[in-house]
Amino acid sequence: MNTPSPQTQTSIEFAADLIRQSKHAVVLTGAGVSTPSGIPDFRSSGTGLWSRDEPLEVASLSTFRTKPDQFFDWFRPLARQMFEARPNTAHTALARLEEQGYVKSIITQNIDTLHQRSGSRTVIEMHGTMQTLTCTQCYHQVQAEAYIAKFVETGEKPRCPKCVQVLKPDVILFGEQLPQAAWYTAQRQARSCDLMIVAGSSLEVLPVAGLPMQALDRGAHLIIINNTPTYLNVRADVVILEDVAMTLPAITERVLYG
Ligand SMILES: [Zn+2]
């Protein structure tokens, strides 16, 4: 682990103070929280699941429906990476803050379930989840783990145990709406929080990138931890241009032990 620079150390202390003083802190996480676990940032690597400026035909609902083999060929290495990934120190730090009552919820752009696997309980998944699969024919939903394990191993498409139709991962593809319930919950959290912590997100994918603005408009404080600048850095109380896997554990230590 790198030792933080004196300037970063000051920012870490300031961030910890804001977290301790907050009554309703909400975290917004993006790809940067999962890259230390070996999951690539789909946007910046140019293979984007949800990239707007570089739409990827294969990650679309229409490809899933019309050419499922092509979809699943593309999806297999991605599924393997997520299946094999383990939570890192950033996930663990956020789970501890929630456990100790400092964080009320985590809004995430990630689909890899690493927050839940590290112990976080209130996770709002804006781009869907790898946790479950749903039948495209009868809408029967199954827990993904056993199906993904078999699919990763054999390459055979996962099929519904009831009607044998292909199962779709419950991730949001191009051509799909954001999950409405998650979106409403996230907006409610953004509007009622007194502190928002953005971690590992460059705030480039709308509408999720607009949530911190909703928090700011209602007077919330804002902490941004991301290794590249975001459009809201100028309005944040604290900006830490560093790796979340180094910074979040340091902040958490400071919050919990002073
Ligand atoms: Zn079915």
Tell me what the structure shows.
With 258 residues, this protein is of the alpha/beta class. The protein is built from 9 helices and 9 strands. It has helices at residues 6-21, 61-66, 68-84, 89-99, 114-117, 144-154, 180-192, 211-217, 244-257, and strands at residues 25-29, 105-108, 123-125, 128-135, 141-143, 167-171, 195-199, 221-225, 238-240. Residues 50-55 have low confidence and may be disordered. The structure holds zinc ion. Residues 135, 137-138, 140, 160, 162-163, 165 line the site of zinc ion (ZN). Zinc ion binds next to loops.
Strand content: 15-25%
Structural class of the secondary elements?
alpha/beta
| Helix amount | 25-40%
Number of strands: 9
Mean pLDDT: 92
Give the helix tally. Answer: 9
Q: From the alpha-carbon coordinates, what is the Rg to the nearest angstrom?
A: 19 Å
